[in-house]
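Please check this chain.
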Amino acid sequence: MHFEILVEDRSGKQALDILVPKIISGQDSFRVIAYKGIGHIPKNLSISASAGAQLLLNQLPKFLKGYGNTFANYPADTPAAVIVVCDLDSKCPKTFRQDLFAILNACYPKPETRFCIAIEEGEAWLFGDLHAVKAAYPQARDAVLNRYINDSICGTRELLADAVYRGGSQALPKQGWQNVGKEKSIWAMSITPHMDVSKNKSPSFRYLREKLGELSAIGKQ
């Protein structure tokens, strides 16, 4: 199985470049493509919003249609799938998934696709393995780590900053948003090498793991 994995930012790509090989078979292949933000689903799915050319959701209708046509021409023994990974943020989970499937259902032919939503942010997947966080940051504040509830809507990025960043979440924005993104990348590259994907406690990460595993198994048939 070949996986095309679309993510909304650089830190997501850096995390998945490390995590995906821990999940899929050695016979599988993958590519992670990072965008420069999540953006918004275009109101008219037949029109690509050029103003959001580097934003994931803005381009998703165009790219899913493209993947559908491309995958349809692959040999039968070369299955492929798209994995769309994005943060829930403050969206309604049910409505967001319905909107994503509306994009997929507008494709003909449809590419094999799975939507994997981090709840509420990608840092939830890092929080899912506190042993990995502590391995990367031995001085991480236990009181902060231990009050996190997996996949809760709580300002996940800010909470992780409070646990591992000097000065906490209050100091991080003062460095500018570009440096916030840089710090997110540092967290991803520091924590994910220590993660045990089989023991992660984040339900949304487990969903990603299960979908990759299921598709990997299909590819072996």
About this structure: Residues 203-220 form the longest helix (18 residues). The first strand starts at residue 2 and ends at 7.
